[in-house]
Amino acid sequence: MLAKVLSCAVVGMEGAMVDVEADILPGLPSFTIVGLPDKAVQEARERVRSAIRNSNYKFPNRRITVNLAPADLKKEGPSYDLAIAISILISSEQLNADLTDSVFLGELSLDGRLRHTHGILPMVSLARDTGLTRIFVPLEDAEEASLLENISIFPAESLAQLVTHLEGEIDIPPYQGKQDLQRITSPDYAFDLSYIKGQEHAKRALEIAAAGRHNILMTGPPGSGKTMLARSLPSILPPLTTEEAIEVTKIYSVSGLLPPDTSLIKERPFRSPHYTISRSGLTGGGQWPRPGEISLSHNGVLFLDEFPEFGHIALESLRQPMEDRTVAISRVHGNVTFPASFMLVAAMNPCPCGYYGDPFKECKCSAMEITRYNKRISGPLLDRIDIFIDVPQVDYEKLIAGNSAEASSTVRERVRSAHKTQLERFTGTATFCNASMTPTEIKEFCVLEIAAQNLLHTATKQLHLTARSFHRMLKLARTIADLDNSTGIKTHHVAEALQYRRKETL
Questions:
Q1: Could you tell me where the beta strands, DSSP code E, fall in 191-249?
Q2: Are residues 368 and 489 part of one domain?
Q3: In a shared domain, residues 424 and 446
Q4: Out of 34, 300, 424, 428, which residue is the most buried by the measure of CB atoms under 10 Å away?
């Protein structure tokens, strides 16, 4: 008897429907899985065999062929275990049920229990969009699957429990633990701007960067507070919206990085990879493409400490994602696109020893070493960074002074107000912040007063700004004006934006 049930695959960040067909024929006992399965899918034969037997069902001692269609789509991972077991039970006439509107997802243990499976959220999303109404998932994945509405999620603890439910002997009620997605609030942060002594100029730059999602590069000697400033940035960003939280959760679910007992990511990601990371680790890739650090920091912050120490190829691979806010991975097995809308926060020393220009410690680097160190970062990559800020050593008097610094919660309210202004401005478009404005939107929304136009005209000629730098300057001035609750861009907004240009251009 031929049996067919539905399951799902994950291709990049999206799901793909998979028909699991089982056919049992007379002949020497064998169990074959076809349809471009990887090693993990091939090993499902032993898991399914033991799970069926240990669930008090009979594993057919005949010739079994399981086909995973479409045959040209490579299948990976153990998520097909449950669908394969159900199809075999139907084909061997041990189960009789109408499963045309059902999808089965989950890995089986040898005793028949269902285990956690990666990528549940995008697979459930596809099933819902396809019009299917019932999704059977492992119990511990039910809360993640329930993030999506208009679909019934049935949590199963084991294969035996699920089969008895399908036969009508017991009832597994649909999962009711729906989360209140409208109440995503700011969490408690380990780092706060109030913990940082001095560095008011750098804090102001972080506030502007957070308000418009601008990329920022901090330069300063060791121990000046660059890392602490960067780690405090998430505390002044507005909370994730419902759509953003689900997007981030999908990425972490596919990557297998969703924390235990966490079905929804509620904090903006903050990723800080080591400078020895490879290009594939940074942008994504592998034989079976997986999201890299830039996708894991989607809707959040990517912090690159010791910026010039990163590999040249890895750094240059950031250029396209910083512009397009997506990253395309091309492999022999196919092409996938991952989201990569992140804020780049980079930190570096002014020279290899770290003390070039320090008034108290002598720099021991030669002019050639300093030049070679700074040339590790290409001009095109630097041209994609909006804010350049110096972070000097903090004076002793400021270190011992009382805690009078502004708290992150206060700054966050100003950032949230500016971000709300931008969302209203770009309603109905794909743009969501000033940093991602198109040339047409720049022309429409970055209106300068006469004096500001004259200042920018003079600066463009004297600083030899490129077209990209010119547009980024306008975006930055627009963000400063938003923080000032100003409809137009005034002279002091442009003047402040010019302060954050790269020193080499001055």
A1: 216-219
A2: no
A3: no
A4: 300
